[in-house]
Amino acid sequence: MAAAIIACAGFAAPAQAAGTAGTYTTGRSEVGLVAYESDLAFANNSIQVVAWVSSALPSTKVPSGTVSLLSDTTGKVLSVGDVNTDEPFLGVTFMDSPALSLGANYFKAAYSGDANFSPKTIRFAIQGISGPKTQTAITVSPAGSSVAGLPITITARTTALPSGPLTGRPVGEYILEIDGVEVDYHYIGAGWQYVFTVTNLPAGQHMFTVRYVDQLGNYGSSTSAPVTYTVTPALGAVKTEFHSSHHGDIPAGTAVTVQAVIKPGVVGGATPSGWVQFYDWNTKVGSPVKLVNGKAGYTHSTLKYGKHVLQARYLGSSSYMAVFTPARTVIIGS
User: Fold this and answer.
1) What is the topology classification, in CATH, of domain 2-128?
2) pLDDT by residue (tens digit) across 49-82?
């Protein structure tokens, strides 16, 4: 805080706030007067108010006297501070505010004047912000589980404790932990949140947490509740064949037997298991048929007059992805 005070005491005064009103006495010099909070102003807490008095015109004389902090509504004196007349805090005084409300808090700062300088009163605001206690939560997408190799997003957001948004400027950083190990960190973003993206998690169950830390110590740290997440192995591809006992034009009443063959997509892969659903155009026919040694069959015994596109769909398994087979066309004549 000393650094901030020195900064305000050693250089030209900031521009006077809008709405400032002053009172002067004939024969004395005018002054410039500003007042502001010394640090983050949290609601329900008092804050040290810094007031700075300086000669409005070049002068070898130094303002003395006092500055009073007044209620904007009643004019009641809330705090009084003596104006420093020595470096490095020349013209600076300190006062304590009452507990602040959330949002804008209006006050007046009244300089008493002295033998050389006129009194002056200004109106100013201190913005009460939520905090400093925090709570952090995370949401994961896709929710619950995903396939190895696909991106997972972890959105962290920090709010005020016990409730409500944090209204101050976002500061600090997030630290992402997976299975108790710190794997990434990032400065907090707009809206007191940040989105992590993870793409290299192995198959299995994992635990996500995000910790919020303010290195400056203005806001309290908080850690999200852990989220359990499952990464399933990436599904393998298959090769498919589709065989038909007939194709092209055939007489009415002809039974057509078809067979789906499902093979691993790589040499040496495990033989696919699971079920196959057969189709006539986009219509399912019969119930799914279980694969035996990678093969499943079905007989179309009641095909009606006209064109039929026969096909099958492998329904997939815990190891292989679902996929349609090639199709075969038959045309039933009269």
Assistant:
1) Immunoglobulin-like (2.60.40)
2) 999 999 999 988 999 999 999 999 999 999 999 9
